[in-house]
Amino acid sequence: MRFIMALMLVFASLGVQAKDTPQPEVIFFDVNETLLDLNSMRSSVTEALGGRDDLMSLWFSTMLHHSLVDNTTRRFHTFGEIGVASLLMVAESNEVELSEAEARQAIVTPLRSLPPHPDVKAGLQALKEAGFTLISLTNSSNQGVKTQFENAGLLSYFDARYSVEDIQRYKPDLRTYQWALEKAGVTAEEAMLVAAHGWDIAGAKAAGLQATFIAREGKVLYPLALKPDYKVNTLPELAKILAR
């Protein structure tokens, strides 16, 4: 009995899927920070904020916060628009002079030119070769994510691209995950979300999906939410886990 318990603990630590957990048919991917490296924007955002490198994370969290304000007030704006507005807010609250044109220049072009993390292409290729349907599910606009994938060389890996622009509800609104499931023609049990954000994992799990947290630098899980099925450091690591 002790041996069996020990094996179960080992499997759990390795992220090995339980036998009664169905293999996902569709894998949804968050985009910004999960697949694409936001650090490349640091120089333009830092310059716009008067050299304040420490305000980069505040800007991104402010952008996410106000996307949820749009959900609540039902006044949808694109992620790029919210990003510009959030940068202006952070600048004003820290007494940095910044015009709307300067904020847009610091965000829009760099956001559409983010490079993929080093592990991404190999991981996506392995998952695609294993037969999984790969779909991006992003808070970015339809045109925005298309341009991002073109510039990052990721277009060919995905079977489809879904944007919250079509439902006008930002993640982690449960309706967004439910809409994605209906659009993909699968049940929650047949789908998995991969994300580097605790709030996205929380939303996916609450909607009934399987979830994998990819631990990008500085990213942590929300401890009060349902736990992800897996926690990995790279996409090839996830591909190995799912290759049962």
UniProtKB/TrEMBL annotation:
SUPFAM superfamilies cross-referenced by the UniProt entry: HAD-like
Known catalytic reactions: an (S)-2-haloacid + H2O = a (2R)-2-hydroxycarboxylate + a halide anion + H(+)
Function: Catalyzes the hydrolytic dehalogenation of small (S)-2-haloalkanoic acids to yield the corresponding (R)-2-hydroxyalkanoic acids.
Superkingdom in the source lineage: Bacteria
Keywords in alphabetical order: Hydrolase, Signal
Family: Belongs to the HAD-like hydrolase superfamily. S-2-haloalkanoic acid dehalogenase family.
GO molecular function, one term: (S)-2-haloacid dehalogenase activity
Stretches of the chain forming a coiled coil according to its record: none
Signal found in the keyword field: yes
Enzyme Commission designation: 3.8.1.2
Annotated signal peptide: 1-18
InterPro entries reported for this sequence: 2-HAD, HAD-like_sf, HAD-SF_hydro_IA, HAD_sf, PGP-like_dom2, S-2-haloacid_dehalogenase
Name of the featured protein: (S)-2-haloacid dehalogenase
